[in-house]
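Researcher: I'm preparing a figure for a lab meeting and need a structural model of a single chain. I don't have an experimental structure, so a prediction will have to do for now. The sequence is pasted below. Please return the structure as tokens so I can convert it later.
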Amino acid sequence: MVAITIPIIREVEQMMNYRTLGKTGLNVSEIGYGAWGIGKTAWLGADDNESLQALNRAIELGLNFIDTALVYGDGHSEKLVGQVVREHSEHIYVASKIPPKNGNWPAPGGIPSSDAFTAEHVISSTEKSLSHLKLDVIDVQQFHVWSDEWVGQGDWLEGVQTLKDQGKIRHFGISINDHQPANAIRLIESGVVDTVQVIYNIFDQSPEDELLPACQKHNVGVIVRVALDEGALTGTITPDSEFSEGDFRNRYFRDDRKQQVYDRIQRITEELNISTDQMAETALRYVLSHPAVSTVIPGMRSVRNVERNMAIGDGKGLPQEQVELLKKHRWVRNFYE
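Model: Understood. Here is the structure written out token by token.
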């Protein structure tokens, strides 16, 4: 068994491509690990042992970037991530996120920054995350929501700088509100942010309009979330798909949305002449085909999904003709509402 497994690992490690995460200078794997699903809230069905196996396997295959958050399972995700990171000698970059003090996702317009982020809240939340992770420093600490109205407001930036001065965080980023990629341009232009995390996929191509060019201009790292559109772009959602009671996907795919998704996926596979089994790979490669993207962070709760997705981080992206064909499949909608 060992003789079979080791060559497979080495082969995939050689394939893994790394990109610079903007001005941070960190070289991160094209495929990162989105750790929302292992927090055991919202996404249901995770098993801690399987989650740990998946994380460890991803690292074996060259992954070196994990994104988690304080609110994922009220720290449960961070605890699992920290456990795995501490067990590895190689450096695994960890990104986490500070929840808004008012508990509002996404950040509504017209409220002061102090409702969501104060220096005290930024510092205390980060210290909680460090306690869960049992690490000395977070490589990229992010605000979990953002409003561009907050540029120049309040004392949140003082909190960020204090954490940097204390050596508790290395870099600062934000997670942009769902489907609002332009709601970070002012912050990017201000020069105080190192990374942005954004929804970007075959359906939501809107970051290509303003955000990604701005990130390229100002050397801001781009972390892509929801590249598979909460499962819609895996090709596995059908009108008969069912989810566990309490799983947020019951709301995300409510009413006739599963049928809408299914119909659109059929059109994509027919046009590209691919099978539905190739949809997830196509979706991830589409995102990685944009030069502004540093890493994409799909949720991978099983070793099987890890092995499938890690093989995609080979630096090849999609052929340009397929990228162009997919442009017509932009779909403006917000299933979170």
